[in-house]
Amino acid sequence: MSANSNDRVMTVGVDGSEQSLAALAWAIAQAEHYGKIQPVISWHFPLRHSPRPAPGAPSPNLKNAFEDQAKEIVENAISGIDSSLLLPSRVAHGQPGPVLVEMAAESDLLVVGTRGHGAFVGALLGSTSSYCTAHSDVPVAVIPADANQARIQRIVVGVDSSASSTAALTWALEHRPEGAVVQAVHSWSPPAAGLGETATPYEIFETSAERILSRAATRAAEAAGQPEDSVERRLVLGDPRGSLRDCEADLLVLGARGEGVISHLLLGSATTALVNHPRIPTVVVPGTAEDGWP
């Protein structure tokens, strides 16, 4: 992936739905920083139209009809967009999730809408956002239909003790627009059990949470080649699903998985919940092999 915004590429899933058009509009608004746009649309034969009699040998006429329809949808979607922001669109046969993950493998960011129904059968982007965040080797931006198209000025990153969340914070630092603030948020809570007379003091859990936040910020800043004070830090008592959903930001960045060492620090489950119903544009960053993540 390129560190130079002039060389960056965003793969954007298009299916003709309002949600995919919102994702495309967000990509256009952010193209100056996150790179040129490569629209991708997939198509496949619905079961009721499975070609007969030869399995796996579709009728050329039927294949051409679906493919032409897909081309028309993507061309309509990009009509009027400044050509300098676009790379050639790609039309591929297959289920949208696997197609998008494959097509985005060499890009810097995969952008999808939250839900979609598509203008033709097989364009269900809504069912692919979770597939993409689970399987993509590149960061995935999930864009709600009412996403703000303004320039990104504030980025919130959910962190825990996992390498995946450190990778997310590093990505946010490396890819933030000039002048944008990056805030690392760590949500924690003490175990619900054992709060009697022999319970571990509350301060011990709070101190542990502070160390986790500090360690993540330090490691990410070092990996991004930036000073430690380039990361704002915020410690929140409570469930990360609530604190991160309610954050005031233009972009939320999460690690694909988490491995909290204190009860309720599991950002992995929080990521799933937040991506399924994002309030603001949300980027899910996979961990890297260098981070010890497969």
Q: Could you write a compact summary of the structure shown?
A:
The chain has helices at residues 18-34, 60-78, 96-103, 129-135, 163-175, 202-224, 240-245, 267-276; strands at 9-13, 36-43, 90-93, 109-113, 140-143, 154-158, 181-188, 231-237, 251-255, 282-285. It is an alpha/beta fold and 294 residues long.
Report on the architecture of this protein.
With 294 residues, the protein is an alpha/beta fold. The chain folds into 2 domains: 9-143, Rossmann fold (3-Layer(aba) Sandwich); 154-291, Rossmann fold (3-Layer(aba) Sandwich). Helices cover 35% and strands 19% of the residues. It contains 8 helices and 10 strands. It has helices at 18-34, 60-78, 96-103, 129-135, 163-175, 202-224, 240-245, 267-276, and strands at 9-13, 36-43, 90-93, 109-113, 140-143, 154-158, 181-188, 231-237, 251-255, 282-285. Strands 3-2-1-4-5-10-9-6-7-8 form a 10-stranded mixed beta sheet, with helices on both faces. Strand 2 (36-43), helix 2 (60-78) and strand 3 form a beta-alpha-beta unit. The longest helix has 23 residues, at 202-224. Mean pLDDT is 82; it is low at 116-126, 259-267 and 289-294.
